[in-house]
Design brief:
The structure holds 2 protein chains of 2 kinds.
Chain A: E1 4-7, E2 10-13, E3 19-25, E4 33-38, E5 45-49, E6 53-54, E7 62-67, E8 70-75, E9 85-90, E10 98-99, E11 103-107
Parallel strand pairs in A: 2-11
Antiparallel strand pairs in A: 1-3, 3-8, 4-5, 4-9, 5-6, 7-8, 9-10, 9-11
Chain B: E1 3-7, E2 11-12, E3 18-25, E4 33-39, E5 46-52, E6 57-59, E7 67-72, E8 77-82, E9 91-98, E10 106-109, E11 113-117
Parallel strand pairs in B: 2-11
Antiparallel strand pairs in B: 1-3, 3-8, 4-5, 4-9, 5-6, 7-8, 9-10, 9-11
The chains are: A mainly beta, B mainly beta.
Amino acid sequence: EIVLTQSPATLSLSPGERATLSCRASQSVSSYLAWYQQKPGQAPRLLIYDASNRATGIPARFSGSGSGTDFTLTISSLEPEDFAVYYCQQRSNWPSYTFGQGTKLEIK
Amino acid sequence: QVQLQESGPGLVKPSETLSLTCTVSGGSISSYYWSWIRQPAGKGLEWIGRIYTSGSTNYNPSLKSRVTMSVDTSKNQFSLKLSSVTAADTAVYYCARAHPQNDGNFDYWGQGTLVTVSS
């Protein structure tokens, strides 16, 4: 099973600042990595798929990069609604999809 | 707008079978992969398995011996059965959709339903 390790566990920033979240895979997942945002009491929402493609309706301030084992989600300028938990997820290693443990982005 | 809605008992006794149904509205269930994903309170996400509208299934190896999924295209529904449950199966259960060309990217999710395993 491919293990995804996200860092940091918690990131404290202020609105307007740039956020950089990391996801590292225990073995290569090529570009088959997605990012999700989850707010309290809500289902996750797909933000980025295949490492760098924004899902439908996702603002341009969200961007993804990386390939192989190291991936980054960047939020260029934080809006108040961006404070949430973010998960990475791989779809490379069939027959099991796996998620990272999450990064909580909190208001400083 | 596609919507997914989970339904089923919120409380299941240990050793019994958890049964949930996901109803898809605002679009056809056909030609997509439909997954179940769960999340224990305060923890991360675990993919349970998926079913295609043909009835073909794939399950997480860690749960495979206890999971059964089925689909009813006439009702636009698919279902999950998880047998021999324990307290470790207590979680919010989500149903989610993936397009075959983006298999494994979950673009629509249900709101989730909490299932508690307790006597």
